[in-house]
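Protocol step 4 of 6.
Sequence for Heme exporter protein B (Rhizobium lusitanum) entered exactly as in the expression construct, tag removed. Do not edit the line below.
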Amino acid sequence: MTALFLRDLKLSVRAGGGALIGILFFLTVVAVIPFGVGPDLKLLSRIGPAIVWIGALLASLLGLDRLFQAERDDGSLDLLVMQETPLVLTVLVKCAAHWVATGLPLVIASPLLGLFMNMNGTAIGVTALTLLVGSPAITFIGAVGAAVAVALPRGGLLVSILVLPLAIPVLIFGVGATYAAVEGPQPFLPPFLILIALTLFFAVIGPAAAALALRNTTD
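Step 5 output, structure tokens:
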């Protein structure tokens, strides 16, 4: 499992620019917002957490279609399905490697992009914390879409269509927890705990559903 994690981590970094492409896309999404809403610093500060979360969500979709594509192309996907190690565990390790390579850099970059939106220190810190907790759920959801679309010639668009509706609850509670901590009067802990629960839920359901889809694909 360690060898698989390191292998997928290297592939995620190399394929399509890896983390750099995601960060650049994240930067592009957040940077164009001030041009659209104008130079109102108070408005930018108020909508900043939501924009950062939306930018991170869209950037997280990049590369999800390649989660199992390398194994599909070289024929090793059949070996992963037939090996003694449970396929669910293999998918979980691949998801972890993909998140470390592409999701974690977005979390690290979010404080800098929060400054572009004129967010205060509390908003920047809480946004980064909620992204750290909630962004893995997007990867687990994306694994299901990637497994379904792995055999399709244009699976990238299908992955985005499948992932976005399922990721909406993660976005809602991530943004809600941030606004609760910054503006109130709602407490921060309830939406934050729900966000953690969503990540744990998809950490169980996502790999299991992806493993089932991969087995059906190889049959």
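Step 6, annotate. The chain has one domain: 1-217.
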